[in-house]
Design a protein that fits this description.
4 helices, Leucine-rich repeat, LRR (right-handed beta-alpha superhelix)
Amino acid sequence: MPNQPNQTTNFTTFADWVLHFDSLTEAARHTVEMLLNAANTSDCNEADRILSNLTYLNLQNNQIADISPLLTLTNLTHLDLNNNQIADISPLSALTNLTHLILVHNQIADISPLSALTNLTFLDLYNNQIADISPL
């Protein structure tokens, strides 16, 4: 599905991710499943309501590789993605309310998307593949 990435960028709610679950990549589906677990429901509208109001989310140790489904969770202030398989953090640039971000033990090389996160007061990037910190 060559157009798949473009379709997901048009999702404006978490419910959109759930409703289009079958067309997502395996990595995106896994993240959606982890978010449904965090919301403690399988109902997409209820999960959307719960997740869209969250300010704190801990998804550490979940083997997450694709964080695109997080981009609609714009009320988050604290996000822990410690010990996953994340390389692309560009979806985080939409989470401008973040004040605390933990990305320890991932596969991140490019941190330029973090430059949009001007409210960050705590950032932990230990044990990644970062060579250039100038975007910060």
